Amino acid sequence: MLLGEFLLEKGLVKEEELVAALDDQQQNKMPMGQMAVQKGFLDSKSLFKVLTEQRKKLRDANDFGAIAVEMGLLNPKQIEELVESQSTTNELLGNLLVGKGILPREKLVEVLREYNSVNAK
Asked: Is 96 left (phi over 0), alpha (psi -120 to 50) or beta?
């Protein structure tokens, strides 16, 4: 069970609050291309090539990795690493809920202990 589902089940957040926090989390995610340059997988010229191809094909932003692989600029292992890095650099859901004033930090700490003990089984 995901943390958001757990919070909903406990009645600690409303569905619309959770959706808004998840949207914020998604919006604040570092773009894969920027992360690829930061990690040294691509130079800025290669990044521009991938972004240009992405625009030409009118493809979704989530297709960046597939396009870079198709163009031979990144390999699947690098994409996997970038996706994992994106997920760990996102603002944590609990912190977003605290920051929005939806959940007090003390309650978050208490709920995370319970959540972790339930999920550890």
From this structure: alpha
pLDDT band at 62 (very low <50, low <70, confident <90, very high): low
Q: 7: Cβ–Cβ under 8 A, 6 or more apart, which residues?
A: 13, 18, 97, 103, 111
Distances (CA, A) of 60 to 47, 67, 96, 117: 16, 10, 26, 38
| Structure tokens that stand for 108 in this block | 């978050």
Residues in the chain: 121
Phi, psi of 74 (to 5 degrees): -135, 160
Output the CA angle 111-27-89, nearest 5 degrees.
60
CB 29 within 8 A of CB 90: yes
Per-residue pLDDT of 37-54, as tens digits, reads: 999 999 999 999 999 998
Considering the entire predicted model, what is its pTM?
A: 0.57
Token pair recorded at residue 101: 């004033």
Domain boundaries of the chain, sorted by first residue: 1-28+94-121, 30-89
